[in-house]
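thread: overnight batch results

M.L. [08:02]
morning all. the overnight job finished for the chain we discussed friday. pasting input first so we're all looking at the same thing
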Amino acid sequence: MLVRLREPALELCRISNIGDCEKASLETVCILSLPELTPNATLSWATCHSQHPGHVPFSSNLQQNPPSHPHHPTSSSGPGKNTGSSTRQPEGKVGSRRHLRFEPRDRIINVVMRIDGASDYSRTVDLIVRCRTIFEFINAQAQGGTAGAMRTIPWNEWGPTNSRMQEGDSLTCGSHVGERRAMALPTRITIRDYNPYRVRRAIALLGGAGREITLECGSVVKAVKEPSVYRGGEWFRDDIETSLPYVETVAPYKEDECEGVFMDEDNLVVEVHTEVSHVHLPPSIKD
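M.L. [08:03]
and the structure it wrote out:
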């Protein structure tokens, strides 16, 4: 999936003849339109984040170097091994644990867009879409389309029910595992799970969407199905309504220096900034 900046739009592509280096080619299958910008707004850059640490295609209208983004380590198996599984074993039960193996379609993609307005003020927008949705559009085009034809699907036909848009922060560190995304703020950690099964289960346990419970640890859990509205302002021509369901868990964090969070299927590791005023080294280290 590539981000087109001028339209703006998402370009869904397929690699043909992947086994032959000389004949391999990138073929555009279809295009998913994004919400229309105002005449005075421009999409200056956009990037995609997913679970695979190497999946960060980048597009930019800027002539300078693209802005840096926090590294998103999402697997404990090391660089280049996209297993999505943890290496932790229960004590005394080595080898007895079932490892999760995520299928590519059972993940989410986070499209981060930086939009410049007429007043020299910019906004960063986060758009979440499930990989399964992307595959469905590609397969539908392959089965129903004519040879050589490329379809552009308007935003209103796919976006409102298959995505969730919210205000973003390009400096906030997050982590992806499967269909879950964790974001760290100075005093809390927010985890959103877009897996449909877990959404239905949460709604049944909570007694309905929109209701929330507070756990003994202080975390607040709720299931969200109702649409959210992103105000267009000077950036988008219209207000944008999206309604991809998710389960949200907000965990308070006592420290005020929480800078990042790293996640696998059952662990969260929080990065905390600390300052050391003076360190007493043992004589052996001093020598």
